[in-house]
């Protein structure tokens, strides 16, 4: 009986591909550079039908949470973050000026991705081998970053990179924010739903 066979392959990324149909602007040039450097972004780097990553002009920002920032907790999962950001920015109530991504670990790809969306970014390395300690340090850094970037806010919305928001995500927080402000016994409002479905 033979032993295990391990095969490793390194397939180089094709450099210099060009999407000639893309507009000639700095943001599209930035996207082109990103797509030449990183793989796996499908519709973001599609030459013929690239997805829009800018906020639609018609989206409403709800008055109750107009100045409440959204903080995305991220690590090394850039593709998860991409799906999260793409959906978040297209959700009614989103405000890119009040959106911050806080990442732990190797952050260059995450930093470049967040720059495409024109969002704020803060990165660090929590430096812990123990998973629980690393997560604890990261969350401390997340909250420190949130209130450093947005010192005037009295609350924040925290979202992890692998979550997809519902279409009424910001509407829900707009309706519940007054509860937090009026009831001192409330610590937080959660939108987590174990039974949620994609629609």
Automatic annotation (TrEMBL):
Cofactors named for this entry: Mn(2+)
Bilayer topology annotation: Single-pass type II membrane protein
Keyword Ligase: no
One Pfam assignment: GNT-I
Co-factor binding details: The cofactor is mostly bound to the substrate.
Entry GO MF terms: alpha-1,3-mannosylglycoprotein 2-beta-N-acetylglucosaminyltransferase activity; beta-1,3-galactosyl-O-glycosyl-glycoprotein beta-1,3-N-acetylglucosaminyltransferase activity; manganese ion binding
Localization per record: Golgi apparatus membrane
Location, primary (coarse class): Golgi
Enzyme Commission number(s): 2.4.1.101
Gene3D superfamilies: Spore Coat Polysaccharide Biosynthesis Protein SpsA, Chain A
GO cellular component, one term: Golgi membrane
Sequence intervals crossing the membrane: none
Coiled coil: none
Keywords, alphabetical: Glycosyltransferase, Golgi apparatus, Manganese, Membrane, Metal-binding, Signal-anchor, Transferase, Transmembrane, Transmembrane helix
Catalytic activity: N(4)-(alpha-D-Man-(1->3)-[alpha-D-Man-(1->3)-[alpha-D-Man-(1->6)]-alpha-D-Man-(1->6)]-beta-D-Man-(1->4)-beta-D-GlcNAc-(1->4)-beta-D-GlcNAc)-L-asparaginyl-[protein] (N-glucan mannose isomer 5A1,2) + UDP-N-acetyl-alpha-D-glucosamine = N(4)-{beta-D-GlcNAc-(1->2)-alpha-D-Man-(1->3)-[alpha-D-Man-(1->3)-[alpha-D-Man-(1->6)]-alpha-D-Man-(1->6)]-beta-D-Man-(1->4)-beta-D-GlcNAc-(1->4)-beta-D-GlcNAc}-L-asparaginyl-[protein] + UDP + H(+)
GO biological process, one term: protein O-linked glycosylation via N-acetyl-galactosamine
Associated pathway: Protein modification; protein glycosylation
Top class in the EC scheme: transferase
Similarity-based family: Belongs to the glycosyltransferase 13 family.
Function as written in the Swiss-Prot or TrEMBL entry: Initiates complex N-linked carbohydrate formation. Essential for the conversion of high-mannose to hybrid and complex N-glycans.
Protein name: Alpha-1,3-mannosyl-glycoprotein 2-beta-N-acetylglucosaminyltransferase
Taxonomic lineage: Eukaryota, Metazoa, Ecdysozoa, Arthropoda, Crustacea
């Amino acid at each position: 009986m033979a032993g295990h066979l391990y095969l490793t392959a390194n397939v180089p990324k094709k450099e210099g591909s060009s999407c000639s149909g893309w507009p000639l602007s700095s943001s599209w040039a930035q996207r082109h550079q990103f797509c030449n450097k990183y793989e796996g972004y499908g519709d973001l780097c599609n030459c013929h039908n690239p997805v829009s990553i800018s906020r639609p002009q018609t989206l409403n920002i709800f008055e109750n949470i107009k100045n409440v920032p959204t903080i995305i907790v991220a690590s090394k999962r850039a593709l998860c973050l991409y799906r999260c950001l793409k959906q978040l920015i297209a959700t009614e109530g989103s405000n890119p000026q009040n959106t911050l991504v806080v990442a732990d670990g190797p952050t260059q790809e995450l930093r470049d991705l967040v720059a495409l969306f024109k969002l704020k970014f803060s990165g660090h390395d929590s430096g812990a081998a123990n998973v629980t300690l690393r997560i604890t340090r990261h969350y401390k850094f997340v909250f420190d970053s949130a209130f450093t970037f947005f010192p005037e806010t009295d609350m924040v919305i925290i979202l992890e990179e692998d979550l997809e928001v519902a279409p009424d995500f910001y509407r829900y927080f707009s309706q519940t924010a007054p509860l937090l402000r009026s009831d001192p016994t409330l610590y937080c409002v959660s939108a987590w739903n174990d039974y949620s479905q994609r629609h």
